[in-house]
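WARN retry 2 of 3 for item q-0093 after timeout on previous attempt; input resubmitted unchanged.
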Amino acid sequence: MNMTGIIFSEMYSDELSSFTYDRNMAAIPFGGRYRLVDFVLSNMVNSGITNVGVLATQHYHSLMDHLNNAQQYDLNRKNGGLQLLPPFATENVGANNRGKLDDLRNALDYLETITNTPYVLLADAYVVCNIDYRPALESHIASGCDITMFATKAEEPSQINSVSVMRADTGHRVTSYALDCPVKPGEYSSMGHMIISRELLISVIRDYTSRGIYDFLRDFIQHEFNRGRLSINLYEVNDVVLRMRNVNEYFHNSLSTIDSAVSAPLFRGDRPIFTRVTDEVPCYYGMDCEVSGCVIADGCMIEGKVENCVLSRSVKIGKGAVVKNCVIMQGSVVGEGACLENVVVDKWVTITGGAQLKGLVSNPVVIRKGVTV
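OK item q-0093 returned
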């Protein structure tokens, strides 16, 4: 395929800081056995993209460990394959990220060496979907526009600010482009995915970063679009698209995978989602356990009551424990007689016997990685 993939693995806000204080945003577990990066990376592989760069600026040890040698994605190749693109070693490493152009500056050498692909797909890892990028590339070429942006059409108003909100004419050419505002019915909300020519991208990175400009969306796309110097083609996606912009969205999107209306379009047989394989024994269900409406990974031990939950590998639910509407990540233990409702439990957490933790549907309790409650 004539396209290189670049994945942004960071989040440019603190809305997911409960999960990212010691891990990269792209490495956040999702769906019981996956990480967020698995979805965009699998989409690229399934679309025939064999050159992929992953931009990471901090806390990327778990991301490196998960990606490993990229064999699970069929990207362990002599030519091309997967490249992790960390920041240059300067005095600014570890400082707050200044924007996507700041990240892309670290990918300049990589972009300049991939001369056999004239187009670049830029994609955020916080969006979970299962799509084929090939029709989008065809749409981009046919449109003759400078950029093609992936978006979903809003059917009802949103209370959450969308990164990019667009209006388009009947030919899907963008006529209005706004940032950080709620989307209204009939408008389009960006997915954080876009296609741009490699030469234009390299030129923009060099020009803007040399002048101390690092906000890709505001300082380049919006600025140039408002002055009529940048044309944007809109590629509408009608499949399931889940955005992880804050803890509440992560919580509800995780539980939504229990519904086959969501899980079936995400986990398709013809476009599989690849991930690192960690073999575990089959899940153990105790004689007195009760399980209903759950996604449960292998290696779990269930001896209590579990309802409408997503459990990752090797989770243990003790006797008499009641767990409802919860997301529990790998290796966590819920002690005997504990009661959890509307809780997100990170990895390797111990909930002591008899503990009572209840959050709200609109504001779940989040337990950080490795703690004991």
